[in-house]
Amino acid sequence: MTSDTFEDLYNDGEDYGSASKYMPTGGFQFMKVVDDRQLGSSPPVRRASVRRRRSSIRSKMHIQPLVQNSKQVEFHEDLNLRSNSGKTSATFRVLEDFEEINILGVGTYGKVYLVKDLITGQLYAKKTIRKAKISVDAKLLKNSRNEKDILARISHPGIVKLFYCFHDEENIDFILEYIPGGEIFYHLQNTKWFSEDTTAFYMAQVAESIQHLHSLGIVYRDLKPENVLLNAKGHAILTDFGLSSTDEVCRSLLGTPEFTAPEVLQGESYSFPADWWSFGVMIYDMLCGGVPFKGSNPEKLLKKIGTGKVQFPNSVMISEDAKDLIKKLLKKSPGQRIAVDDKFEEFKKHRFFRKVNWKELRDHTPPIVPDCENLEEACNFDKSYIQEALEKDKKLQDKTNGGVSPFMSVNPNVPNTPNKFDDSMFKGFSFCASNSFIEKHFENMKINEQ
């Protein structure tokens, strides 16, 4: 594995240089960037070990200066349609139909807004990605296209829904299901840790979502509390598919370091078991108030992930059932990890889930019911964090005149990095779900509200 697949291991402003044998050969350059995985809220910390939001690893980019193309792109130039009923009817929509009324998140590559459909009055989340940010690297562009393609084909109660995708001369805009309850990360920060019953309930819902993805040949690659949101009723919804892959055997170094499996960090090929490692880390994080492997710098962190033993804090009561499952999920070798995908029914019978009613998992009242009285206020998304991120984003834009981050390296000799903005690379991004798919979603929402 080459070194050009690793960016922003730690987002704390320090340059740690290259690492040891626990990292892929070639050395890594760590760059101070604000990662666009950091969307949502950041309430008061629950532990010193989690003072920052956990940032996803991205590909290090070799880029050339961009020249903005003035060409106007037609919306829906290649309209894709989805329908649960097999019908392909869809109403022609444009981006101007969706009015921004609040902001939910800010990142390097764009922003997430709360928007209202001016025609129907329904609320959505709009994820806006700057074309100038992702067009400079084929891998970033592929990740964004994968996100659209994956969400366009999936309909699952535990996975965020995509309704529309537009693009113009500056941005790609995903119109997504609005999930108003905020991140599990948000609620975890407020309570320090969850009880085993709460953790088992939510991780059972997450397990169903991950297993469904795997059944479709999709590796999620970035499971963490920041990427699981609660809907208005308090059920877990998996979001943010920007790092997901439809290649069942992967080699790219992507994910969030504290949650990433050893085989990924060591540059080996990997597949579905890497997601179940992250699943185990997330259980530990929710029960113990922190991740199992920590390091003061990337080298130490990766060494602990590669060779360290799982230890449980004395300050928290954790059952032997929970410890057993975590240890089985956090086996260093993916071949020794507990089998989940091929034996999912057996996995569900593990004693950690003994109180979970899997058949009625989405019908029960969840342990956490978020405050969603006024959906337009987006009260479960931390405004102070968003304001701070907006200020950082503005400073970055001022430095680069709206272009590319000054912390990213420039290499004019690297192929597939265009000298000017070429909109043809975005062909195929437009998408519109069928009327029946959208209507069914909002009908189900009304039923659930009763």
UniProtKB/TrEMBL annotation:
Query: Which SMART domains does the entry mention?
Result: S_TK_X (SM00133), S_TKc (SM00220)
Gene Ontology molecular function: ATP binding; protein serine/threonine kinase activity
Record-linked InterPro entries: AGC-kinase_C (IPR000961), Kinase-like_dom_sf (IPR011009), Prot_kinase_dom (IPR000719), Protein_kinase_ATP_BS (IPR017441), Ser/Thr_kinase_AS (IPR008271), STKc_AGC (IPR045270)
Keywords recorded for this protein, A-Z: ATP-binding, Kinase, Nucleotide-binding, Phosphoprotein, Serine/threonine-protein kinase, Transferase
Q: Name one Pfam family in it.
A: Pkinase
From which residue to which does the signal peptide run? Answer: none
Give the family this protein belongs to, as stated in its UniProt record. Belongs to the protein kinase superfamily.
Q: Specify which residues bind ATP according to the UniProt entry for this protein.
A: K131
Record-annotated Protein kinase domain positions = 98-353
Q: Please list the residue ranges annotated as the AGC-kinase C-terminal domain.
A: 354-441
Identify the PROSITE patterns for this entry: AGC_KINASE_CTER (PS51285), PROTEIN_KINASE_ATP (PS00107), PROTEIN_KINASE_DOM (PS50011), PROTEIN_KINASE_ST (PS00108)
Protein name per UniProt: Protein kinase domain-containing protein
Q: Which SUPFAM superfamilies match?
A: Protein kinase-like (PK-like)
